[in-house]
């Protein structure tokens, strides 16, 4: 049975840099209390080995598996090396939060490969609600920033994919042309690799834009360009109203997931 360990009063006191007591942050105390225990590192060395059909992660020379007991195997040596590096970098405990490529590879092998059609359907739903179609009504600086970041990508989408979305100001839903929706679905279905499909899904859900994710997948944008384009609004808000440390920390974690997905797409 799961339980929460009781904390003494001393354990709930925040400390300042000089060791004196700082005001108690009850939310921080609860977060620390409810963090799950991380598994201990059970291996000395991580590596990979070539095998039939790809390159498999090894721990102390033994082949590793996914949580669903599938072989933890990827198509390229470069991607396998990144997997091994994530495992090698672990300390006394194994922290999945620091292993975004491993998590995506596990998801690919256990969740995407055996459920391709469901993943395609889920991605296709974004064809009618793409971030790039919804523009701010103001202020002018934000409107200009969106246009500068998004219009060249939409030009590419028209030429490369046959996508011609209808743009709308504000957040009211606008129905997209059936031809554009169908064109985006064809672009999804053209992604044959389960690793590419998993990466496309991750990049789409993290940005709200299937078009930006496809632009990365097809080499039109690099990950940094796509991430910046997806967060024009957040950048404007931070410049206008100041930075929020907690929000930026959350965004940094999401960016790491996005970059991991772009890496998997490029190397798989």
UniProtKB/TrEMBL annotation:
Keyword Amino-acid biosynthesis in annotation: no
Pfam families cross-referenced by the UniProt entry: ATP12
InterPro entries in alphabetical order: ATP12_ATP_synth-F1-assembly, ATP12_ATP_synth-F1-assembly_N, ATP12_ortho_dom_sf
Keyword Transit peptide among record annotations: yes
BP GO annotations: proton-transporting ATP synthase complex assembly
Keyword terms: Chaperone, Transit peptide
SUPFAM superfamilies: ATP12-like (SSF160909)
Record-linked PANTHER family: ATP SYNTHASE MITOCHONDRIAL F1 COMPLEX ASSEMBLY FACTOR 2, ATP SYNTHASE MITOCHONDRIAL F1 COMPLEX ASSEMBLY FACTOR 2/ATP12 PROTEIN, MITOCHONDRIAL PRECURSOR
Family: Belongs to the ATP12 family.
Protein name: ATP12 chaperone protein
Record organism: Methylobacterium symbioticum
């Amino acid at each position: 049975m799961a339980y929460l360990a009781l904390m003494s009063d001393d354990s709930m006191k925040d400390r300042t840099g000089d060791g004196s007591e700082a005001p108690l942050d009850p939310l921080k105390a609860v977060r620390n209390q409810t963090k799950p225990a991380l598994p201990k590192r059970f291996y000395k060395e991580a590596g990979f080995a070539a095998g039939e059909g790809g390159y498999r992660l090894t721990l102390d020379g033994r082949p590793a598996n996914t949580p669903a007991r599938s072989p933890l195997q990827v198509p390229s040596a470069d991607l396998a090396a990144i997997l091994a590096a994530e495992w090698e970098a672990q300390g006394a405990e194994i922290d999945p939060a620091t292993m975004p490529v491993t998590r995506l590879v596990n998801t690919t092998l256990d969740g995407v490969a055996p459920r391709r059609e469901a993943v395609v359907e889920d991605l296709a739903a974004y064809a009618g609600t793409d971030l790039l179609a919804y523009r701010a009504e103001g202020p002018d600086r934000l409107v200009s920033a969106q246009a500068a970041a998004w219009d060249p990508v939409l030009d590419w989408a028209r030429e490369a994919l046959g996508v011609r979305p209808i743009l709308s100001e504000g957040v009211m839903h606008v129905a997209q042309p059936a031809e554009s929706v169908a064109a985006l679905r064809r672009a999804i279905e053209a992604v044959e690799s389960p690793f590419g499909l998993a990466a496309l899904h991750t990049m789409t859900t993290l940005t709200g834009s299937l078009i930006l994710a496809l632009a990365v997948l097809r080499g039109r944008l690099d990950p940094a360009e796509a991430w910046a384009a997806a967060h024009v609004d957040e950048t404007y808000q931070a410049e206008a109203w100041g930075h929020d440390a907690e929000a930026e920390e959350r965004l940094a974690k999401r960016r790491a997931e996005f970059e991991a997905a772009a890496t998997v797409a490029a190397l798989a």
